[in-house]
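Deliverable D4.2, example record:
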Amino acid sequence: MQNPATDDFILTTKNLTKEFKGFVAVNDVSLNVRRGEIHALIGPNGAGKTTCFNLLTKFLEPTRGAIHFNGVDITHEKSAQIARRGVVRSFQISAVFPHLTVLENVRIALQRNLGTSFHFWKSERTLDVLNERAMALLGDVGLTEYAKTITVEMPYGRKRALEIATTLALEPELMLLDEPTQGMGHEDVDRVMQLIKKVSANRTILMVEHNMKVVAGISDTITVLARGAVLSEGNYAKVAADPLVIEAYMGTEANEAEAA
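Output generated by the structure prediction step:
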């Protein structure tokens, strides 16, 4: 009989810990990512967010603790196994080919469904069956007009949209987005924020994000990390009013000001 909690939470961690030669980067973190939500992982620089992501996608092995996806213990599985289960981190498949067209990049991501992921010597005609699906994905992320554009010639924000399209090509059940709006201007931030909201339909998103406008605008639940541990959790209004969160962020800003 399935645990009722499994239906509510797609991803859970229990006492997740990662130590590097005595330094505790992630300290006893227990996450509960609710199915169908956009869950943001935030915190000051050095809070352990990226290390936590690396543990979840198995680029790092935890020192202690457990990770469950859809009720299955995946703590010791490899990153490829995790991806096959439907947990996909954006950069895992979004190292886009800069000198191929936007359409070609999405087609390559779709090749996994044909079982020809590395058969680059095959005739291009064998990939034509993927065009319709690739164009549909480009439509989902607002890149239809860029289909024939060489990727390197696209604006930065549009490249990030392409990364999301190639992530969607793997049909993830859980998307992990690492700083999806980093380095963007206001217009691109707004566009990508709306895009994330759109593609969250029928899937769950866990994202690391620094831009508080994005976090406040689209997140259902927010977990705040500080010094590797969970400091606060809840909706934006709850965590923004938490004195511990205010102190953690203001302390960081004060330290940066002193350093400057």
